[in-house]
Amino acid sequence: MSLRIVVTVKYVPDATGDRHFADDLTVDRDDVDGLLSELDEYAVEQALQIAENADDAEVTVLTVGPEDAKDALRKALSMGADKAIHVEDDDLHGTDAIGTSLVLAKAIEKAGYDLVISGMASTDGTMGVVPALLAERLGVPQVTLLSEVSVEDGTVKGRRDGDAASEQLEASLPAVVSVTDQSGEARYPSFKGIMAAKKKPVESWDLSDLDIEAEEVGLENAWTAVQAVAERPARTAGTIVKDEGEGGKQLAEFLASQKFI
Ligand SMILES: Cc1cc2nc3c(=O)[nH]c(=O)nc-3n(C[C@H](O)[C@H](O)[C@H](O)COP(=O)(O)OP(=O)(O)OC[C@H]3O[C@@H](n4cnc5c(N)ncnc54)[C@H](O)[C@@H]3O)c2cc1C
């Protein structure tokens, strides 16, 4: 029986680019360079390693996003994923995490799966909630924030590192897991991988393919709304201490004045 792994990957604005908000207070994704969310590269990497250790496995990458989100799928396919699904629909504009999890859950059910792997958070919304929302909607266990993950005899196992202790966790498949940026370096696509990705299938679905009504997603139907946005104040130069013998004392006084000590 082939192990069906679905990896959720998000297309995000390039953090080095000039990111700004549109008039409707959503992040302006037009004319802004975007890429595969870096934290999702770790999810793709762990999916590929699990597939390489399995007798028979298939890795599908899935994204919900605008036209350009195909670039995120192409990157994951060039890393070695087998196929991709792109859910795109004008009515998805401004969809919140609740709505995104609905679309992802319906797409995952339609694709068929045994294991869903997500990143620990996206690098733009950074909420870190979608994996839990997904598990709830799919009615399966979730094992999140893993720094190590493997699959054996229908069970997903992993290690979650906390400040004081590490936990060994496991769940029967089907299940949802998320992996951290400590789960191991993500491979770089080889030239062969990039060329092969051009031929790999990318299915495009819209809301009607998933029996989702426009009233269930989009900015109008979001459970949270951005009220206002303001430029982050420019960073100040800060206090420069020239150590003429009293540097340590001045530093301690500064830290005390800031209630750091
Ligand atoms: C600056 C900013 C602030 C926002 N604030 C809110 C808010 O307060 N409340 C709210 O409900 N929404 C908010 N959103 C919208 C929210 O980002 C999107 O709905 C998003 O799709 C889900 O949230 P996230 O990116 O934080 O996901 P996270 O929960 O951080 O994502 C975890 C993982 O889920 C998967 N994933 C997330 N989105 C997608 C996707 N579109 N396609 C495929 N996989 C995905 C990825 O594997 C990712 O690593 C905000 C967006 C931005 C850019």
UniProtKB/TrEMBL annotation:
Domain Electron transfer flavoprotein alpha/beta-subunit N-terminal: 24-214
Keyword Transport on entry: yes
Name recorded for this polypeptide: Electron transfer flavoprotein subunit beta
Domain of life: Bacteria
SUPFAM superfamilies named among the record's database cross-references: Adenine nucleotide alpha hydrolases-like (SSF52402)
SMART domains cross-referenced by the UniProt entry: ETF
InterPro entries found in the cross-reference section: ETF_a/b_N, ETF_b, ETF_beta_N, Rossmann-like_a/b/a_fold
Cofactors named for this entry: FAD
Function: The electron transfer flavoprotein serves as a specific electron acceptor for other dehydrogenases. It transfers the electrons to the main respiratory chain via ETF-ubiquinone oxidoreductase (ETF dehydrogenase).
Keyword Transport: yes
Pfam families per the UniProt record, alphabetical: ETF (PF01012)
Transmembrane segments: none
Keywords: Electron transport, Transport
Similarity-based family: Belongs to the ETF beta-subunit/FixA family.
Record text on subunit structure and interactions: Heterodimer of an alpha and a beta subunit.
